[in-house]
Design goal:
By secondary structure, the chain is mainly alpha-helical. 86% of the residues lie in helices and 0% in strands. The chain is built from 3 helices and no strands. The longest helix is centred in the C-terminal third of the chain and has 78 residues. It comes from Syrrhaptes paradoxus. InterPro entries: DUF4577 (IPR028099). Keywords: Membrane, Transmembrane, Transmembrane helix. This is LSME1 protein.
Length: 130
């Protein structure tokens, strides 16, 4: 039976230390160069262990979801704008109909007034003759 070796390979530890120092310097440089808002990206990288494939996959999914949401919102807004334009046109047509009815009614009222005046004049003349 083989026993797991309890010996530590010292060159590997030294290499890991170098990588840790370089990684720390990179993170420090990112903190100095990047604005505060990008700190969330650095935190996500640390949480995922720096696995680029996972973050690129999630970034791709996020972008795809963003574009789908964006396109859907554009379609909904286009539908709403079309509906509003349709309502404006319908309202204009109804207003035109109402205004034309009002004009014809006004003409009818004026004709009735003229007829009423004529009838009153005729009645006044007939009363005077009697």
């Amino acid at each position: 039976m083989e026993r797991p070796s309890l010996e530590m390979n010292l060159p590997d530890i030294h290499e890991e230390g170098k990588l840790y120092v370089v990684d720390s310097l990179n993170n420090l440089n990112k903190l100095n160069v990047c604005p505060d808002e990008s700190q969330h990206v650095l935190d996500e990288e640390e949480n995922t262990g720096g696995a680029g494939e996972n973050t690129s996959g999630s970034n791709t999914r996020k972008r795809c979801l963003f574009f789908v949401t964006f396109i859907l919102s554009l379609i909904v807004s286009l539908a709403l704008v079309s509906f509003v334009i349709f309502l404006i046109v319908q309202t204009r047509n109804k207003m035109d109909q109402i205004s034309s009815r009002l004009i014809t009614e006004k003409k009818n009222i004026e004709e009735l007034k003229k007829m009423n005046n004529m009838i009153l004049k005729h009645l006044n003349q007939s009363v005077i003759k009697e």
